[in-house]
Amino acid sequence: MRDDLPRNNFKRAIAAGTPQIGLWLTLASPVATEAAAGAGFDWLLIDMEHAANDLPEVVNHLRAAEGGTAEPIVRVPWNEPVTVKRVLDVGARSLLFPFVQSAEEARRAVQATRYPPKGIRGLAGVTRASRFGRVADYFNRAESEICVLVQVETRKGVDAIEDIAKVDGVDGIFIGPADLSADLGHPGNWQIPAVWNTIIEAGARIKKAGKSAGFLSAREDDCRRVLAAGFGYVAVGTDLGIIARQSEALVKMYKG
């Protein structure tokens, strides 16, 4: 019965420093999730912040990812414990928290994923997360497989990296290049040296603090640059971006 709690290989891989390649999912399509889950990625991001995914859709994405190689990570819409509790109960175990700017906000994120006395997650005996009560001692064992990633996407958050990294229970810190570029005064343009230098420096500080750094870009040169700099988990594209750009390429091929 103790083997019924699935092992979070992604959490262990980033702790060991093994690079993890992922794909960002924004189509709100479980079919796309199922197709991507078997492609060989290490992780998939199910987005609730900037995509039309609510709790029922998240459950379907999690089901679609079963049997694939990729760990499904859910980006919750906000650092808010009620949503976190519900996402965990339906079976997510790796979560990305957006817009974390301080150690206190990181602590709140971790506490939302932990049962008392370490946190504030409410206990429910029959949930998808515990395989409907079939996982022995779930309440005491769940924490070992839960992965907490926090997203730093402002100058204030970057300044607080060391303090955020010290928070017990934080497994990784994700650098959001788009929002960070906006906060630095260059919306959507992280290619300029001032923003890139901030990204690379932030990744080095995260790694020095003993945590894994994350990143997203659809550009191969961006992804190879951060991987070479030691970032631990990198999304190399989005499902919607693949459809948009490849459909344009097909039209150009046949219509010029």
Describe the structure.
- The protein is built from 12 helices and 8 strands.
- The longest helix has 17 residues, at 239-255.
- The chain has helices spanning 9-16, 30-37, 55-65, 81-89, 103-112, 138-141, 155-159, 161-165, 177-183, 193-208, 220-228, 239-255, and strands at residues 20-25, 43-47, 71-75, 94-97, 147-152, 172-175, 212-216, 233-238.
- The chain is α/β, with parallel strands linked by helices.
- An 8-stranded parallel β-barrel has the order 1-2-3-4-5-6-7-8, surrounded by 7 helices.
- The protein is 43% helix and 16% strand.
- The chain starts with 8 loop residues before the first helix and ends with a helix.
- It is globular and about 60 Å long.
- The model has no long low-confidence stretch (mean pLDDT 97).
- Helix 4 (81-89) links the parallel strand 3 (71-75) and strand 4.
- The chain has one domain: TIM Barrel, CATH 3.20.20.60.
Q: Provide the residue-averaged pLDDT.
A: 97
CATH topology heading: TIM Barrel
Q: Hey, roughly how much beta strand do the residues contain?
A: 15-25%
Structural class category: alpha/beta
Sheet having the most strands? 8 strands, parallel, barrel
> What series of H and E elements makes up the topology?
HEHEHEHEHHEHHEHHEHEH
* Uncertain residue segments: none
Note the main attributes of this structure:
TIM Barrel, alpha/beta, eight-stranded parallel beta barrel, single chain, about 260 residues, 12 helices
